[in-house]
Amino acid sequence: MKRTAREVDQVQGSWVEEHRRKRFSGSMNEAEQDFNHVMLSVIEDGQFSDHDHDTVINATCLTLIIGGSDSTVITLTWALCPLMNNPSTLKRAQDELDIKVGKHRQVDESDIKNLVYLQAIIKETLRLYPAAPLSVPREAMEDCTMAGFHIQAGTRLLVNLWKLYKNPRIWSDPLEFQPERFLTKHVDLDVRGQNFEFLPFGSGRRVCPGISFALEFLVCVEPSSYF
Ligand code: HEM
């Protein structure tokens, strides 16, 4: 693990060095101005007392890469499985794409608002196959009581999202893949941490910062495997 972490650090570090060289030599074109470039532009030495400039840039870039790749790819893959077993759901998704996008181009950002069934498929996938089934651990800052349990300050807590999503008191037929539930009974459920029965991206100050990107990516890329 440590060796792999060192290798990943080196790769990310070499990207920052390359960006720095190109910035100084003025040879960076617009297409190369990625997140490393933004970080180099906005972070100056001396801004952080605990860590140096490069550590902050490398850690921020790697957090986004690590947090954003596995979660999205897992969801994309799981979204396909139930469609293979539910031809009528696949047909409904294909029909929506034919009507709202047509057969001769790819889905783009402007289509997302019209692809309501596809959005429901993504939400149902996030419910049935959560990429982060235990979310991310929290630590109690002070003694408290939750659901009758005394929690001591410093205790690590996990929210069992998987169990929450299979609770029949909240979700009817919880083990069934039914995207329609997000167009009917659960149509008003938000995915951004406001409705505690559905928290695919967590909630509160550490909520996933990649929500918008992930949703757009999933709705735009998922259909490419439907035909
Ligand atoms: C389907 C895709 C994704 C899912 C299901 C997902 C889910 C989550 C969850 C449950 C958390 C924990 C939130 C909490 O503790 O309240 C989280 C955190 C995080 N996610 Fe995502 N995420 C996804 C995509 C992305 C993408 C695309 C990015 C970046 C481009 C990203 C970056 C992060 C980061 C950096 C954190 C840590 C935030 C912090 O601790 O302050 N995620 N994500």
UniProtKB/TrEMBL annotation:
Residues the record lists as binding heme: C208
Protein known as: Cytochrome P450 82C4
Cofactor: heme
Pfam families in the cross-refs: p450
GO BP annotations listed: terpene biosynthetic process
Statement: the UniProt record of this protein carries the keyword Metal-binding: yes
Annotated GO MF terms: heme binding; iron ion binding; monooxygenase activity; oxidoreductase activity, acting on paired donors, with incorporation or reduction of molecular oxygen
InterPro entries in the record: Cyt_P450, Cyt_P450_CS, Cyt_P450_E_grp-I, Cyt_P450_sf, Plant_Cytochrome_P450_Monoox
Family: Belongs to the cytochrome P450 family.
Keywords (A to Z) from UniProt: Heme, Iron, Metal-binding, Monooxygenase, Oxidoreductase
Organism for this UniProt entry: Vitis vinifera
